[in-house]
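Fold this sequence, please.
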Amino acid sequence: GVEFELALVDAERLLQGEPRCRENGYLALVGARLAFHANELEQSLAMATEARDIGAEFCDPDLEALGLVHMGEASLYLGKIKEGLAALDEAGVSVVADELSSWAGGIIYCGVIYSCISRADWHRASQWTEQFTRWGESRGTAGYPGLCRLHRAEVLTIKGELGDAEDEVREAQEALAQHAPWAEGDTWRARGDICLAKGEFDAARKAYERASELGWECQFNLAMLDLAEGNTAEAARLLGRTLAENAFSGRSRRGQTLAYYVVALSRAGRADEAKSALGQLEADPELTGTTALHALLELARGEQAAASGDMTAAISRLKGAVRSWQGIDAPLAAAEVRCRLACMLAKDGDMDAAGRELGAASLVFTQSGAKGLLKQCEKLRKTLSVGKT
């Protein structure tokens, strides 16, 4: 609105030489946040740095740490990964050291966890979530604020704890609908992701559509749904558009988007286009700089190899993807790859190995309560004529 625009103008004026004072530091924070969501990342980084510097100058640890969080977020999205992680860690450590007020500490933890999730750094996200839990208990808080509950739900979804994830999203929806309705759409997006993880595709689509109605960008999530349903051409179209638009939501997960674009193109039989997209992914190491992103890279390489007729390489790559997912306690992601691996093993004539992969995947789906995926897995077993092992 107009108030936001005026705040951004005031923050820009600050960077042009307005006298420093503590209040201007908080104004710079507002400007950094607005610029961040407007995809003006260099401007966001400059304003966040100003806020951090003013906080240090006026001995305001809350302001200094909040500036660091925004610096970290902007740096990550600019591809300055080392600098971004350092800023986020420094902000997080200030909360652990009990240097900050409760309100600032909650915002900082939320920002750190969100940044980890954005770049698929699920291991760090899980660690910070556990730390936040201990911090909240030490402060006597009854639970997470809405957005933090939402981020915790995303971590639980990756870990296959779908029932607990649903509980967290339900709590988040109630809190955000009352106190931060602008973020309610994101809770529907997260609910859609949980439904997708369970294999409840109709419910996932309805949740994503509701999120879109509330103004939340779900193009990537809808592409993932199309890919899961076997609509590879539509998934490739949506992912290609996401990459071309290069908007904020796409820039936040470009590595994931490129990897799944390769997968969609490969499964659609467009091997040459998949090879070109894979080259883009491999050209920038920062796009695959976490274990989860490396798992997606291996999946993309495997699917492209399969589309090119090299089944030996495809099987090897998918096995590597499974190991990477298992290494960060992401059982559902590993199980989904194992189902795809079973198809390739069966095509290569190793029916016993295909049966073992499906058996392992079935166990994970059963334990996680992913009934839809379990049903798909059993259907795949019949299609491949693979017996239980």
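Residues 128 and 166 are 20 Å apart (CA to CA). Confidence is low (pLDDT under 50) at residues 1-7.
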